[in-house]
Amino acid sequence: MKAKDIDKKFNNNEDISPYLDTAKARRPKQEQKRVNVDFPIWMIHLLDKEAKRLGVPRQAIIKVWIAERLEKAS
User: Fold this and answer.
1) What does the DSSP assignment read for 5-62?
2) How many independent structural domains does the chain possess?
3) What is the pLDDT of residues 8-57, one digit of tens each?
4) Domain holding 54: CATH number?
């Protein structure tokens, strides 16, 4: 199927998922790399407290806060 045909189906709110190869899908500039960071215990306790309050994992808070700070610095 040609791209213009897929675009047409998409614009008509039709399901185009059968035409996509999701096994090879990736998000540009969103690749992950694991890093290890050591935090003082008091900081871990405060992160866990905030994570529990928001109902999210500790890692989510760390990612969001770092992303916010980096956006401000840009």
Assistant:
1) HHHHHHHTT---GGG--GGG---TT-----------HHHHHHHHHHHHHHTS-HHHHH
2) 1
3) 999 999 999 998 888 888 888 888 899 999 999 999 999 999 999 999 99
4) 1.10.1220.10
